[in-house]
């Protein structure tokens, strides 16, 4: 704005402080989004989304400060899942609203029903049947489950070398379980032209230092296509790495909602596939990427049938053949919930932060929304369904026509009063002249 003939700029950070008894919690009311990638939200869209999220952000802060009994979430371990520091940011964020812990199901006869949800974070070794049975019966009892799994693995250190490396299927042995619930993770890598870049040495500078540039890497899909759902409402981009394809299969009574999609410019690569960073140097065209949009995460809702119906486990005491209504989230990339960390001082970075780019993607928002939707019975996440349309003034047009509208606002009201007075005087004069 202008003040005394000078242009003045003020930086404002919209927020609120929620106080309850001796506690105080901040609520951030403005959404900040990196805009260096294609198809990102415009400043007007960011403002609109921030307004739409005000109610949800305030309710979340009030819930955080007033809730007495916390629901419980457990990260499963014992099958090569992500280590603590790699899930630190998500666990810490969940810890503001839920009781978060670890659970090694190999050492437990069952999954405690006091646990409301389990998270299976990128396992790289095989689940035994007895462990899968525990997961199955937990779901039958109404427990929620989040599966973030890789269908294919690759040694990226080897891929950095010129010759590259071959991919391999992950044998986590959860395919039949998910198949029964309505989805299938395939052993097919997804390549997407809309992807995040990686640092590549493209030559050497005059002092013989490597010349490093960021070049798009098709194996890292940049997701900015979402379904219309409270989980994905007002998300920015989500970054995935080495994701695989997902298919749905018949599961009676189960509602399957695809949540995130690739861009239309994609293709599939079956296993084994030779993966090398040298691929990033080649010019890719849309003619080679013609598969179209592919879903990479599904929300499953309903009363699921046990994977062990008609099998020997069905004779076990307390076996549940048909479960209570519940929810399952399946994402075909375990990196969606993995945060990077400094190997020098073991300090974790925010979930979704890409250190090469210096930007933070919406991975954490996506997962937090999903878990809130699945666990929170009060339906706080439904506040995101509110839709607000802002119609800001055209600043350029306002500046150009400012004098005109100021003059009009100054002259028109008195002119209308004078005109009204003259008309009223004329009418009264005619009335009395007739008498």
Protein architecture, described:
The chain is built from eight helices and 26 strands. The chain is an alpha+beta fold. The strands form nine sheets. Strands 6-5-7-8-22-21-18-15 form an eight-stranded mixed β-sheet, sandwiched between helices. The protein is globular and about 110 Å long. The mean pLDDT is 86.
What descriptive keywords fit this protein?
435 residues, alpha+beta, 8-stranded mixed sheet, 3-stranded antiparallel sheet, 8 helices, 26 strands, 24% helix, 30% strand, globular
Chart the SSEs and their pairings.
Layout: E1 2-3, E2 6-7, E3 15-20, E4 23-28, H1 43-66, E5 72-77, H2 88-94, E6 99-104, E7 117-121, H3 129-140, E8 144-148, E9 152-153, H4 156-159, E10 165-166, E11 168-169, H5 175-181, E12 183-192, E13 195-204, E14 210-223, E15 225-226, E16 238-239, E17 244-248, E18 255-261, E19 266-270, E20 274-275, E21 295-305, E22 322-331, E23 341-342, E24 347-348, E25 353-354, E26 359-360, H6 363-375, H7 395-400, H8 402-434
Parallel strand pairs: 5-6, 5-7, 7-8, 8-22
Antiparallel strand pairs: 1-2, 3-4, 9-11, 10-20, 12-17, 12-19, 13-14, 14-16, 15-18, 18-21, 21-22, 23-24, 25-26
Shape: globular
The average pLDDT is 86
Instruction: Tell me roughly what share of residues is in helical segments.
Output: 10-25%
Number of strands: 26
Main beta sheet: strand number and arrangement? 8 strands, mixed
Structural class computed from helices and strand pairing: alpha+beta
């Amino acid at each position: 704005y202008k003040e005394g003939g000078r242009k003045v700029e003020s930086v404002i950070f919209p927020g609120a402080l929620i106080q309850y008894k001796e506690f105080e919690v901040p609520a951030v009311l403005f959404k900040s989004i990196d805009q260096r990638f294609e198809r990102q939200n415009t400043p007007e869209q960011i403002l609109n989304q921030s307004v739409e999220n005000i109610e949800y952000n305030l309710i979340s802060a009030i819930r955080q400060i007033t809730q007495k009994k916390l629901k419980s979430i457990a990260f499963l371990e014992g099958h090569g899942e992500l280590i603590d520091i790699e899930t630190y940011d998500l666990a810490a964020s969940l810890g503001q609203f839920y009781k978060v812990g670890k659970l090694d199901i190999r050492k437990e006869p069952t999954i405690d029903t006091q646990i409301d949800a389990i998270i299976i974070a990128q396992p790289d070794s095989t689940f035994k049947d007895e462990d899968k049975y525990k997961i199955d019966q937990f779901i039958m009892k109404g427990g929620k489950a989040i599966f973030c799994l890789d269908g294919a693995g690759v040694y990226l250190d080897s891929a950095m070398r010129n010759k590259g490396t071959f991919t391999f299927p992950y044998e986590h042995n959860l395919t039949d379980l998910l198949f029964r619930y309505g989805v299938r993770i395939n052993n097919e890598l997804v390549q997407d032209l809309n992807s995040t870049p990686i640092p590549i040495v493209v030559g050497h500078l005059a002092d013989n230092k490597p010349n490093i540039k960021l070049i798009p890497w098709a194996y890292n899909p940049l997701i900015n296509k979402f379904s219309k759902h409270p989980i994905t409402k007002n998300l920015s981009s989500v970054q995935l790495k080495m994701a695989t394809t997902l298919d749905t299969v018949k599961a009676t009574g189960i509602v399957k909602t695809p949540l995130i999609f690739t861009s239309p410019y994609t293709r599939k690569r079956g296993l084994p596939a030779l993966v090398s960073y040298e691929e990033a140097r080649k010019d890719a065209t849309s003619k080679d990427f013609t598969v179209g949009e592919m879903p990479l995460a599904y929300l499953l809702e309903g009363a699921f049938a046990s994977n062990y119906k008609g099998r020997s486990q069905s004779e076990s005491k307390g076996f549940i053949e048909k479960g209570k209504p519940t929810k399952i989230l399946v994402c075909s990339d375990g990196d969606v919930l993995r945060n990077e960390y400094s190997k020098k001082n073991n300090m974790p970075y925010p979930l979704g932060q890409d250190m090469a780019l210096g930007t933070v993607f919406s991975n954490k928002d996506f997962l937090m929304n999903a878990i809130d939707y699945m666990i929170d019975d009060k339906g706080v996440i439904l506040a995101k369904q509110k839709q607000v349309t802002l119609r800001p003034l055209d600043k350029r047009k306002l500046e150009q026509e400012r004098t005109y509208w100021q003059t009009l606002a100054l002259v028109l009201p008195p002119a209308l009063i004078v005109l009204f007075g003259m008309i009223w005087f004329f009418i009264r004069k005619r009335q009395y002249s007739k008498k």
